[in-house]
What does this fold into?
Amino acid sequence: MLTHARALLTGTESGRTAYIDADLHDTEHILDAPELRETLDLSRPVSLSLISIFPFIPDADDPHGILHRFLDSLVPGSHLVLTHLSADFDPPAAAQLMDTYHQQGIPLQLRSRAEVEGLFAGLDLIDPGVQIVHRWRPDGTAADLTDLQVAGYGGVAVKR
It folds into this structure.
């Protein structure tokens, strides 16, 4: 990840990128990092993109608290883009997947659609709301995928 981030850092000024080597649980370190403040103007709306990250934040680690510490630092008009794997589509296979991750010491918690919707609490979901990722705004490019193959939900919301 760090090697990829360093490669991105050589981009143009208009596509500025910063990398903060931090654990998502350490919200204060991330939000106080000079790299963040030098790259993003948090006095203006920005997008917080959390793609396939929250399955690795178990309930015991307070995912809602982590998420809202980040959202609290953003101004109204900012967006949250979030995707999350779910066991809704094949519970036995999902249990096996979680067991495999846990055996490797990696926390993995798959959440139901209702639980994923709960991560957007207090925000205004953009239509069509929380949907299976490839069906969020279907354009036909993912027509050959099944819900089981995708097995995750996603949504976009705006902070009031």
